[in-house]
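Technical note accompanying the year-one report. For the benefit of new consortium partners, we illustrate the data format agreed upon in the data management plan: each record pairs a sequence with a structure-token string. No post-processing was applied to the example shown here.
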Amino acid sequence: MLALALQGCSFFGSERPGGYFEDDGPPLLGGPDPASVPDPIPRIEPLSKTGNAPYEVYGVRYRPVQEARGYRETGVASWYGKKFHGRKTSSGEIYDMHAMTAAHKTLPLPTYLRVYNLDNGNEVVVRVNDRGPFLGGRVLDLSYMAARKLGLVATGTARVRIETVDAVSPALAPVQEVTLTPGGGQVLLQAGSFRLSGNAQKLRRRLEDAGIRPVRVATGRVGNDLYYRVQVGPVAAGEMRMHSARVHEVIGVEPTVVSDCC
């Protein structure tokens, strides 16, 4: 039964008024700076092998849809944190509370959503890889990091509008990931991708203050959306791992190797 595999946000424990479970909450040390964690860039992916079949929770039958293009919904979102960090999600992926993910009851796994906080105007893009929430009539459960960027960690919940974001074919994407060959060429290390120029410049300064240079902010479009990409380099391919480790120390996640260099 799929319900037994629903390790996500709204299935276990008793809920506290703030929006997360009594024994859930934020990490003890806070985690990475939200400004250094980019929103995911929507890409074409196959449906997850698990989590897309009909399932039942608390006596309610849910039938996930196979296509979500043009989907919109307004309601209340909550978030989940350390209680589920490191557990499997309904899609079979491991839940990382510092990643930009979310849970929804019926959208395909995975789906990319733009989430608008109607209480403060903040917006993010998340990747749906889990099922929930199943309590309180809520429409979405956000990872801790997504909740931080939306500004709803303290309140626990917020009114949101969600809409699907169309993925871009890798052949049309402005930045292409590459497989390196030993000793060949130069590469760029992408440390983050942001909708707001100010956030990109903040990360650029943070990297430069840590002695990482050169750092540039490049622009690129995904569909109709303009993104500001923070990129380190160019660096020699043979030194990529060393530079990648230094960037990881600063931002807490591995940078992406991209090929639109030089």
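Partners are asked to follow this layout when depositing records. The longest helix spans residues 197-209.
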